[in-house]
Structure to design on (899 residues):
């Protein structure tokens, strides 16, 4: 079978002929057996799950890690066992943290398979039977009732007030009224109201449906195929770190060659001795703490993001968010509340605006800017009471928040009435229900008959044009009056105005049934009841934008990030929400799914930058949009909650799922789960991502400039024919302790205030740009300069011997490194602008490192190990004073360049 065949376009007679079945009798057992053999079981193929071993191995893919492992091996060969073990310990720690974060990845397709219904009711051999959903075949007749999960894609052949929830497939929370009429071939998936689909559920009514596709040929199966084809690739951080590793590798080889050639040709040092010295220096040049710093920065970012309502499933994704140039976001529940809300009411004389979003029962009624309550307005009170009287929904508390049981639109009416102190309980007590004429998609209205006092009353709601056509009276502040043509015209204009604001409009009416008796066994005729109605008013409903979403969109624009809304909703609704939130501005385009179908991938790539809103889109459309952005070299984030979002979420540079409304499939495909389903939380996560990248960049600059300084010290000493100023143990201590711990503290630096006022980084941007290299070389030269100066002074001017000269170099270099950590916190802002104690961890680490430096000088075992003598007061003051020089110069540089 072809999953994309336009089954909704065929007549029922054509379908039964094509599928060789009978609507009343169903398939015979023989036909079922043959078709099971032909089409296979009705189930989705499960994707491969990553094993724990595969996840662990993936932690060693980075070139940085292999450079470190190589350095550890060389250290062991050279006899520096302690150095080698320290480096290996860092590699293992990095792998453990990464493994723990990613252990639960790779289960999206398996979760998708769990959406299928385990059992269902079908007609076979002329009888209703319950069978396993996996045994359903094309041509089967499904019997559907409220509460059923749909077991396959099927065309409706009978429908009685049938309504389904297709949110898992289309992403839209509104229930869908179903019918059996054929539809045009080009009808979008979200509007195929004569079809039911695997993975969706029946919310009410009953029906009979002819199965047209099963298993991987269903719409859900098509999404499963897209999910398998989606590929994320490396994150920008992984690419940058691999480029850093390659650069370090070549730099180390260059150092070995340079020192070997200079030492051999200029100094005449024996080749083997020279080779060992050169390799030792190359190993010392590698920032062993880099993987640990990156991992800790990401892990701390993960913890901070939890506090900002974002759970991270893959650590590298944290930084990727900081590169985001485009955020493609679902509308329902992310930009909007995800809960229908009555926003405007129109009565005979007034237009009311209602505050309070979702199903919350707190809010205020306004006419213009003046509060106006139902207790003061009889026509408003009557409208709200009737909205509750003609209602089958209930408001209940679920997970500490109000939720609706039943139709979301009816839930919104209950919430609006509750704001005026009118509750369902009060109505049920005062006006017991006598009978109901249920909503029907053909009639477009619903009626409930209740006893009010000693007589029955009918309460009706439905499509405005349908209700108004049956009204002859209207309720006003002075009482019931005839409905004039002028009033009718004015109300129809109000209906158009509300609709133009992308509000879903319902009309509400009532009438006394004094001449109507509810005799036992009497069949009600809706024509008798729903005539000569008293018009009460119009209710404009909408899933309202979140208050904080508009501010978040503005924040994105300020940060140079384009927000794109992708929804399965109607274009008018999408356009209205887009304009209200500031997503759809002057010159921006809106594109409908049918128009997108007419664009090939090349044309979409060219046009995608101009489109800010997409409406009536499918899972495949979303995937194509994400791929078009990626084809432009753009880092794109994709958010969503439905199964139809999962392929695009997996394909995106960064996939974000909704935690409350999101399906398990979507969550498993995502890198990040937003626990409050709020677009503002996504923007907060972007802010964290940018801050994390800044911290990684500053710690890398700190580590490399320190290592550069050490290399210059050692290289100059060799070229000058001096003794080595630092021993191997000195270098190890400086790299792992003096550099390593401040670098870890820098990784925890608070996010800078202006981080969201900058444009996003390009994904191909190099860490080692010219400015970065200049800063490293400048800082390295400063550190090397003061270190070589004190070494030469002690050895050749003061004649204090090699041990004291090395002590001076060791102490001065450590001082310069520790103090420089404060300067490394910002490229532009000085210490006094940042505040000395604004990163208390760094302050404490520097203080403890200075204490350890004193311990090395005064604890006998350390003195012997480091070949160091106790410090005198004069030495302490002098060497530490010289160590301040790089910090002072770096601060003056910032003042001159950025004041």
């Amino acid at each position: 079978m072809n999953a994309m065949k336009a089954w909704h376009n065929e007549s029922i007679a054509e379908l039964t002929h094509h599928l060789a079945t009978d609507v009343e009798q169903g398939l015979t057992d023989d036909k079922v057996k043959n078709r099971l053999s032909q089409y296979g079981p009705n189930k989705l193929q499960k994707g491969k799950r990553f094993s724990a071993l595969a996840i662990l191995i993936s932690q060693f893919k980075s070139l940085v890690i292999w450079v470190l492992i190589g350095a550890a091996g060389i250290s062991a060969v050279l006899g520096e066992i302690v150095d080698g073990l320290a480096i290996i310990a860092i590699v293992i720690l990095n792998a453990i943290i990464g493994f723990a974060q990613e252990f639960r990845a790779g289960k999206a397709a398996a979760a998708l398979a769990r959406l299928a219904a385990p059992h269902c009711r079908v007609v076979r051999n002329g009888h209703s039977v319950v069978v396993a959903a996996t045994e359903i075949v094309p041509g089967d007749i499904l019997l559907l009732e409220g509460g059923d999960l749909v077991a396959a894609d099927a065309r409706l052949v009978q429908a009685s007030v049938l309504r389904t929830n297709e949110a898992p497939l289309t992403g839209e929370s509104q229930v869908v009224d179903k019918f059996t009429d054929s539809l045009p071939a080009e009808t979008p998936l979200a509007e195929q109201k004569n079809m039911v689909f695997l993975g969706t559920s029946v919310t009410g009514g009953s029906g009979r449906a002819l199965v047209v596709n099963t298993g991987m040929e269903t719409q859900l199966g098509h999404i499963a195929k897209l999910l398998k084809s989606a590929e994320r690739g490396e994150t920008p951080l992984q690419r940058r770190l691999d480029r850093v590793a390659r650069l370090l590798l070549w730099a180390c080889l260059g150092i070995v060659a340079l020192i070997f050639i200079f030492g051999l040709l200029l100094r005449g040092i024996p080749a083997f001795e020279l080779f060992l010295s050169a390799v030792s220096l190359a190993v010392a040049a590698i920032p062993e703490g880099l993987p640990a710093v990156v991992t800790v920065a990401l892990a701390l970012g993960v913890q901070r993001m939890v506090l900002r309502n974002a759970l991270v499933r893959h650590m590298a994704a944290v930084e990727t968010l900081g590169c985001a140039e485009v955020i493609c976001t679902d509308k329902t529940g992310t930009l909007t509340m995800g809960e229908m809300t009555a926003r405007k009411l129109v009565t005979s004389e007034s237009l009311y605006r209602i505050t309070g979003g979702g199903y919350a029962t707190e809010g205020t009624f306004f006419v213009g800017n003046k509060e106006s309550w139902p207790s003061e307005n009889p026509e408003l009170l009557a409208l709200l009471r009737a909205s509750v009287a003609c209602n089958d929904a209930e408001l209940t508390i679920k997970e500490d928040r109000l939720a609706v049981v039943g139709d979301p639109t009816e839930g919104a009416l209950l919430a609006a009435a509750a704001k005026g102190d009118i509750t369902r309980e009060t109505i049920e007590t005062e006006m017991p229900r006598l009978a109901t004429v249920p909503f029907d998609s053909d009639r477009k209205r619903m009626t409930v008959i209740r006893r009010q006092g000693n007589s029955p009353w009918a309460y009706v709601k439905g499509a405005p044009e349908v209700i108004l056509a049956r009204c002859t009276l209207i309720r006003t502040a002075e009482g019931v009056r005839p409905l004039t043509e002028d009033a009718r015209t004015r109300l129809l204009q109000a209906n158009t105005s509300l609709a133009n604001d992308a509000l879903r409009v319902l009309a509400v009416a009532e009438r006394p049934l004094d001449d109507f008796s509810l005799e036992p066994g009497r069949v009600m005729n809706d024509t008798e009841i729903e005539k000569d109605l008293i018009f009460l008013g119009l209710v404009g409903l909408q899933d309202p934008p979140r208050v904080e979403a508009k501010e978040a969109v503005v924040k994105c624009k300020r940060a140079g990030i384009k927000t794109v809304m992708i929804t399965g909703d109607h274009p008018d609704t999408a356009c209205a929400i887009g304009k209200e939130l500031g997503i759809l501005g002057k010159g921006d385009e809106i594109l409908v799914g049918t128009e997108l179908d007419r664009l090939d991938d090349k044309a979409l790539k060219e046009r995608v930058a101009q489109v800010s809103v997409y409406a009536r889109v499918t899972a495949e459309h979303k995937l194509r949009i994400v791929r078009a952005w990626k084809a432009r070299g753009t880092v794109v984030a994709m958010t969503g909650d439905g199964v139809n979002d999962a392929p695009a979420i997996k394909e995106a540079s960064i996939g974000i799922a909704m935690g409350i409304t999101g399906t398990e499939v979507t969550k498993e495909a995502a890198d990040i789960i937003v626990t409050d389903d709020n677009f503002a939380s996504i923007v907060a996560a972007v802010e964290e991502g940018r801050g994390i990248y800044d911290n990684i960049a500053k710690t890398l600059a700190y580590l490399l400039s320190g290592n550069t300084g050490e290399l210059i010290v050692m290289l100059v000493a060799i070229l000058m024919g001096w003794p080595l100023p630092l021993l191997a143990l000195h270098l190890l201590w400086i790299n792992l302790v003096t550099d390593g711990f401040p670098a870890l503290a820098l990784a925890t630096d608070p996010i800078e205030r202006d981080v969201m006022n900058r444009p996003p980084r390009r994904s191909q941007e190099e860490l080692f740009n010219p400015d970065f290299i200049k800063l490293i070389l400048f800082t390295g030269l400063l550190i090397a300069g003061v270190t070589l100066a004190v070494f030469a002074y002690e050895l050749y001017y003061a004649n204090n011997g090699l041990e004291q000269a090395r002590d001076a170099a060791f102490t001065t270099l450590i001082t310069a490194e520790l103090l420089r950590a404060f300067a490394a916190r910002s490229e532009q802002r000085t210490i006094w602008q940042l505040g000395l104690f604004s990163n208390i961890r760094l302050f404490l680490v520097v203080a403890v490192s200075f204490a350890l430096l004193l311990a090395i000088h005064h604890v006998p075992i350390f003195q012997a190990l480091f070949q160091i003598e106790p410090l005198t007061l004069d030495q302490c003051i002098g060497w530490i004073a010289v160590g301040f020089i790089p910090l002072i110069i770096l601060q003056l540089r910032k003042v001159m360049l950025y004041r």
About this structure: The chain has a mean pLDDT of 83. Residues 62 and 238 are 7 Å apart (CA to CA).
